[in-house]
Description:
The complex is a heterodimer.
Chain A: H1 2-18, H2 20-58, E1 63-68, H3 86-95, E2 99-115, E3 126-134, H4 138-141, E4 146-149, H5 154-158, E5 163-166, H6 168-175, E6 184-187, E7 190-198, E8 213-217, H7 218-226, E9 233-238, H8 244-258, E10 269-273, H9 274-317, H10 319-327, H11 332-369, H12 377-404, H13 407-410
Chain B: E1 2-11, E2 19-29, E3 34-38, H1 45-52, E4 60-65, E5 68-69, H2 75-85, E6 86-89, H3 101-105, H4 107-110, H5 120-127, H6 143-155, E7 161-165, H7 173-188, E8 192-197, H8 200-203, E9 208-213, E10 216-222, H9 225-236
Parallel strand pairs in B: 3-8, 3-9, 6-7, 7-8
Antiparallel strand pairs in B: 1-2, 1-4, 4-5, 9-10
Amino acid sequence: MNRKTARLAVHSFKALTRFRLRSAFLMLGSLVGVAALTFVLSVGEAGERKILSTVRQLFGGSSILVITGGGRLLGGPRAGAARMTLADGEAVVGELPEIEAWDPQQGLSGEPVRRAEGSGTGSAASTTARVLGMSERSERVWDRSVSRGEYFDAAAVAGSARVALLGETVARRLFGDEDPLGAEVLVGSVRFRVVGLLEPFGTDLHGIDRDDEVVVPISTLQRRVLNVDTIQSFKLLVREPSRIDATAREVKRILRERHALSSGQPDDFTIITAVEVQSMVRKVERVLFLYLPLVAGVILLVASAVAASLMLSSVSTRVGEIGLRRAVGARPADIHLQFLLETAATSLGGGALGLVVGCVAAEVVARRMALGDVFSWQAIFLSLGAAALTGLLAGVLPARRAARLDPAEALR
Amino acid sequence: MIELEGIGRTYTRPGGSPVEALREVSLRIERGELLAVVGASGSGKSTLMNVLGLLDRPDAGRYLLDGEDVSRLGVNEQARQRNRRIGFVFQSFHLLPRTSALENVELPLLYSDRASIAGLGARALEAVGLADRMDHNPSELSGGQQQRVAIARALVNEPDLLLADEPTGNLDEASAGEILEIFHALHASGRTIVLVTHDPNVAAHCDRICRLEGGRLTSDQRRSRKSSAALAAREGA
């Protein structure tokens, strides 16, 4: 019996190689499906790792972010004029001893940044970048230091020094292979000396390249570039993450008092705590781990239906062959097994190719989006399992039909 | 060897009236006979062949193969009996395309319980004179050669009974002659052969001719081999 099954299996695989076009079409469906599933699962997994690490870095469990203007975390209108100042932050920190550290931020995006004439050897290159004004404490509060050079210190912030830290992208655009340290750049029309290079970061949750940034002391940005005394946001680190909600309420009370908001008026600022960020991350995770595999699953289901219909038409074009096999001694179970094997073999073969395609595509996308390592055993096993399952599903109906053919009818 | 007793087979087609393809057919075939079943199309000769070949079940009567009632066997057991004891030759050859002659011949071995199948296919092809065409696909063979491959396939499992349905129907005269020669040789070596045909010239090669009309067996002529030529001459006169 086993010997017979083995003979039959070898025979079935040989038969597949004789009808290459038909086999190729059968493989195509599961190839596309498995490629999609592999891609989605491995990119999804890497994407989630990236998001979580980004969130941890930007927004640990002890962080409170206060942003000027009302509205919500992601999009939504921001009511009221921006009127948050450094003094607001200082007042909050002064009143609440549970705050361990803080850092204010002001910034502008799309600002032209150029190499100052005469610095360096090449002609002055120019680019646009996000320019952020921060305090010397941001190195710790935002957990991002310099890879070369030195972060500016408190004295630089107090004295509105014209020193700048360049992100990797900006440095590469302006200086290429040259060393930017000590060189001078113009932000708008203000001359800054480059004292450090920011640690590489990659893209953040909004898809913004966080290496396309210039960080300068906030006082310098306010006075010399923007001529404002407002800030866009400040970030607080609390000593007791478990009391973060109570602390956030205190911050809100102090700011409403300082901005003289009566009880009917909405906040003219937004407070975001780790709790809210986590709920946002959960939403993103739901998309990645439910909807994307669902889409890939639908693709595989369609692939399975296509394979099933191709197999069905293969059965009806091979009625004579089936009748002959029955005449020379094939049992219905043998016919059944043969067609199941044919479908399973093409599905798994297509699946294996799809796996390669999916992994390559994931790798390409991962490189482009700086997602890191996307190779995932889980994705590979899930995809191959799905291919085998859809192959079996696609094979069952045609195999049954083939096995049930009346041999006398089939030979007519 | 074969005993048919009162075999009846009625087809009911949806929307049509029932067709009685076989009515009370009783027939005894001895081991080693070369028998022709003749009749017009629709006379039931294909149905008779399907019944003999265990491809169709009679609604009435008994079919004894070597004393065993095989018409009541289960589907799988019938498949086993076909594989071991019956060889089929069809008008349209029914060879698998893009598959070598040797692999076509070996097809019945795929479904057999034999421990070793090595060499059997090649030997069967040699027996029909196609030792030099083993690796050829059906499309590379002439009609006569294709039918010889099909005969080799029918013989590969050493069956007791060979059933041929219009084996020369798709062939030119020369090829048909070759095929009939092979049947004669097989008959001479003691094999039981039932040949279904509407062609009197083909039937004249057999020593027994059974005629079917409207599903009934209407005549059963027996001739000794020696007298068959004389008989044919007398009939012609």
